[in-house]
Amino acid sequence: MSGGAQLMWDEAVAGYDFGPGHPMDPVRLSLTMRLIEAYGLDREPGLKVAGAPSAGLSTLRLVHRQDYIDVVKRVSADPTTADGSYGLGTADDPAFAGVHEASALIAGQSVGAAEAVWQGEALHAVNFTGGLHHAMPGSASGFCIYNDPALAIARLLELGAERVAYIDVDVHHGDGVQTVFWDDPRVLTISLHEHPRALFPGTGWPEESGGEDAEGTAVNVALPPGTADDGWLRALHAVVPELLEAFRPDVLVTQHGADTHIDDPLAHLAVSLDAQRAAAEACHGWAHELAGGRWVALGGGGYSVVDVVPRSWTHLVAIAAGAPVPPETVVPEEWLGTVYSRTGMSTAPRRMTDGREAAWKAWGESGYDPADALDQAVLATRRAVFPAHGLLP
Are 189 and 219 in contact (CB under 8 A)? Predict the structure, then answer.
């Protein structure tokens, strides 16, 4: 296996555009790539930038139903045919010309990332344009048309992977990926998200733990609204490493939605950029310690499209490339100019940090506090799934 990392990129991914006023503004993708370039990460010897072809029919059918794909293609050719069925033509997922082509292109980048890692072309691969984890086998949902994380995992299994672990730190539950692999003991899905009582999609309870023949392979940590850095990182480290050690994955797939941030307009957590960076570093470390270094990292949600998303995902790419950007680093002036030209915003972050330390109390060292809502959430998850892996809650 070669070392290094591969960054999946095609300028045409900006065609995934639900229109003016929609929270998922594709400018977040182009601004992220421009920030990566401004730091020269695309020229790092440890990083190769490459594109992949769009996901074809045989690939899409690894996860999605034929009737759904047919509808997406029909709506793509004529958006006026969308009537809300199959989740298309709704407020969350408006119809637009070329929706199939744009969605299949993003899916293709995630599948290409998975192929590059499994076939030994790269140790790590990143597709920050992906992470569209809400799409269901037969419907669009939550800004997601095709479920590229599930497609990447399905392709890994098709190529011969025996165990794949998926970690989702988006603020929203990774419901689509969980649904696809609910009955598959080869896939461990772990989702760390805001409590379903408070946020879309209303699923992701600790008791959702997998199908009859896959008990314990769906893991859900439902976090109280307002959870900040210390609690978020405490929960992540209290659940993930022990499960990975027990599951022994061949490859790690991670989803890094940036909408956990305190400034995100669609959710209610209080996580900083520095904690998001710490989570990416943790996933990188777990890949090396527990998955032979094989790591596929994806983007996801994130609706503070200037202040948060580009910095968060630039950190992710830099970590994968072996050229981490120190948090105190000043943001390049050329990127600030790009922000102004693309958005009209004259203010943007000046450093790659929110000025937080991103520290937490380790679960095993500090013990369980029965009066703490965060600790209650963590314990509920551990009780629901740890015994199925031979672990003590």
Answer: yes
pLDDT tens figures, 206-239: 999 999 999 999 999 999 999 999 999 999 999 9
pLDDT band at 3, cuts 50/70/90?
confident
Contact 113, 156 (CB under 8 A): no
For the record, the structure tokens of 158 come out as: 């098709």
Q: What is the pTM of this model?
A: 0.98
Measured N-to-C along each axis, helices 273-290 and 229-247 cross at an angle, to the nearest 10 degrees, of 10
- Rounded CA-CA distance 3/120 in Å is 8
> Alpha-carbon distance 287 to 393, whole Å?
24
Any idea how long the chain is?
393
Active site residue 134: yes
H or E element in which residue 222 lies: strand 218-223
> Which tokens is 253 given?
């797939």
DSSP state of 189: E
Residue with tokens 């555009």: 17
SS3 of the chain: helix, strand, coil, percent, to 5:
40, 15, 45
367: left (phi over 0), alpha (psi -120 to 50) or beta: left
Q: Are 324 and 353 in contact (CB under 8 A)?
A: no
Give the phi and the psi of residue 299 in degrees, each rounded to 5.
-80, -130
- Cα–Cα distance between 304 and 235 in angstroms, integer? 24
The domain locations on the chain are: 5-389
Q: Distance from first CA to last CA of the chain, Å, rounded?
A: 37
* Residue 2 pLDDT: 58
Sheet harboring 164-168: ordered strands across? 47-50, 5-8, 124-127, 295-298, 251-255, 164-168, 187-194, 218-223
Reported CATH class of domain 5-389: alpha beta
Choice among 64, 124, 133, 134 that is catalytic? 134
- The residues, ordered by sequence, that sit 6+ positions from 140 with a Cβ below 8 Å of its Cβ are 72, 86, 87, 88, 90, 92, 93
Residue 1 has what pLDDT?
41
Q: Give the per-residue pLDDT at 367.
A: 87
Tokens of 288: 């090396």
Nearest to 393 by CA among 168, 378, 219, 189: 378
The CA distance from 38 to 163, in Å, is 37
CA pair distance 15, 205, nearest whole angstrom: 34
Q: Could you tell me if 101 and 272 are in contact, meaning their C-beta atoms sit under 8 angstroms apart?
A: no
Mean pLDDT, the chain, integer? 97
